[in-house]
Amino acid sequence: MEHVKLFKRRKQLSIAIGVVGFLFILLVILDRTTELGIGEHFPLMGFIFVIQMFLNFGNFKKYFFQFDKQHIKWRFPGMAEPKVICISEDSMDITTNWKGVQINHEDQYYEILTDGLWKGEKKLIYKTLKQYYS
């Protein structure tokens, strides 16, 4: 199955926040072990940032978008279970609007709602599907 890599920017932002948290923790450790006089600013905030980074990565692993010639399978934020569309290799019409990506296939209408995704991720899904199924 093909995969679309989602949440790239959010993962980068989470890593940046985690690095800032590690720096806060490092500054507190340096202050307590040396006499640099940096001060004990924000020790709890550093731990919160690091914990936030690990929690976000755990959440991002649950979400995915996969497809092949017979199936399209996805799980986005706010969905309890993954959704699956079974399709054949016949031609299909793929369009997009403000709600998400629509697929018209053999007199059936499917909609992939992209509520929890950023605009760039929605465009990436649309372009990838358009290229793969054309």
Key descriptive features of the protein:
three-stranded antiparallel sheet; rod-shaped; four-stranded antiparallel sheet; 134 residues; 23% strand; alpha+beta; 7 strands; 3 helices
What would a concise description of this structure say?
This protein is an alpha+beta fold and 134 residues long. The chain contains three helices and seven strands.
Describe it.
The chain has 134 residues and is α+β, with helices and mostly antiparallel strands. The chain contains three helices and seven strands, in the order βααββββββα. It has helices at residues 8-33, 43-60, 119-132; strands spanning 2-3, 64-67, 71-75, 83-86, 93-96, 100-105, 108-113. A four-stranded antiparallel beta sheet has the order 1-2-3-4, with no helix packed on it. The longest helix has 26 residues, at 8-33. It is rod-shaped and about 75 Å long. The model has no long low-confidence stretch (mean pLDDT 84).
Distance between the termini: 17 Å
Radius of gyration (Å):
21 Å
Order of strands, main sheet, comes to: 1-2-3-4
Shape: rod-shaped
Element-by-element helix/strand order: EHHEEEEEEH
Approximately how much beta-strand content do the residues carry? Answer: 15-25%
List the helices and strands and how they pair.
Elements: E1 2-3, H1 8-33, H2 43-60, E2 64-67, E3 71-75, E4 83-86, E5 93-96, E6 100-105, E7 108-113, H3 119-132
Antiparallel strand pairs: 1-2, 2-3, 3-4, 5-6, 6-7
